[in-house]
Amino acid sequence: MKPNIKDLAQEDLVSWLGQRKEPPYRATQIRKWLFQKGALSFSLMSNLSARLRAALEEDYSIGRLTTLRRSLARDGTVKFLFGLSDGLSIESVLIPEGSRLTLCLSTQAGCGFGCAFCATALLGLKRSLMASEIVDQVLEARRSLSGAQRLTHVVLMGMGEPLANYEETVKALRILGDADWGVGISSRRITLSTVGLVPQMKKLMEETQVNLAVSLHATTDELRSQLMPINRKYPLAALMECCRSLPLPKRKRITFEYVMLRGVNHSSEDARRLSRLLSGIRAKINLIPFNPHPGSRYQRPEPQEILLFQSELRKRGRQVNVREPRGDDIQAACGQLQGEHKEKDEGERRKDAIHPSSLILHP
């Protein structure tokens, strides 16, 4: 099987071209065809010579994802189930909201971090995605747009932990953000969500300019370790100290995501502790009411409980938003559609599972 040219580093492509007496600028032309024009055939690259197009065809392929299913919700949310070349599948969610059109994409097939409230954890980690597979979610979603529709924002909040797939995720971010030959989405419009991998968070902020969102979900180490096992390695004190030390530009804030679990993590004392935890950090809080699923021991708080918790945080001077689920009627939650496809293919008993992190869409 010929290698996917989208996985080729710029310097390697320049080297391949040099061996064929082609100038380095051809690499930029080729990448524009791949990532800006979405070319699916070398024959379409009309500003390249016939000889070069034939050489590319001989040595490389142009990989793409297979759209296994596309579901449209009443509110306009679109959920994609994408097939990978090895038979695994991932999903992305396209969310319209006013003038914004945001794509929530995946960085791994499955997830290995075992968060107690997250149904994607039931899948386990199958594998991490290549940078091309991350970017291809954007290219495929963009192909589905019509008329004047334009993708405005990208959030890495789908299946998997982006920072556990650090190298490929950063490669993908560079392709997405490059305006010369890449997709051309400004880093100001890209947000990456993490469970809190401290060393990688520091590295990410040094190497990129994307927005950072941290999945917090609890105000004590005891509870956070129950909900998110990663807390045993990077407890709250270490995580908060990392956030305080990050080299944030003046106008940027870190988004802290907080899934609200009824009777578990939204007391007045939780509001007080949460505000204190964020002391010294330019922060905004996204409250995500839990989306229950059969078999889950957690429930969503009542609307008045959500508003009360929001109010208590605002009284302490915190910027707080409540994020409601989108695409309820098509169960547009990361992990669910992939699970449906897998169970259909393998004849397994269906598990109605919802991944609440998919509700964290617009920091």
Structural class: alpha/beta
CATH superfamily of the largest domain: Aldolase class I
Based on Cα principal axes, name the global outline.
elongated
N-to-C series of helices and strands? HHHEEEEEEHEHEHEHHEHEHEH
Total number of distinct structural domains: 2
Give me the number of helical elements.
11
* Helix content percent band: 25-40%
Q: What is the oligomer described by this structure?
A: single chain
**Largest beta sheet: strand ordering:** 1-2-3-4-7-8-9-10-11-12
DSSP summary, beta strand count: 12
CATH topology of the largest domain: TIM Barrel
Which CATH architecture of the largest domain is right? Alpha-Beta Barrel
Uncertain stretches of 5 or more adjacent residues: 334-339, 345-363
Most strands sheet: 10 strands, mixed
- Per CATH, the class of the largest domain reads Alpha Beta
User: Which radius of gyration do the C-alpha atoms yield?
Assistant: 21 Å
- What gap, in angstroms, lies between the N and C termini? 41 Å
3D structure, described in words:
- The protein folds into two domains: 5-59, Orthogonal Bundle (DNA polymerase, domain 1), CATH 1.10.150; 66-359, Aldolase class I (TIM Barrel).
- A hairpin with a 5-residue loop joins β2 (78-83) and β3 (89-97).
- α4 (131-143) runs parallel beside α5 (166-177) and α6 (198-207) packs parallel to α8.
- The strands form two sheets. A ten-stranded mixed β-sheet has the order 1-2-3-4-7-8-9-10-11-12. The chain has a two-stranded antiparallel sheet with strand order 5-6.
- The chain has 363 residues and is α/β, with parallel strands linked by helices.
- It is built from eleven helices and twelve strands.
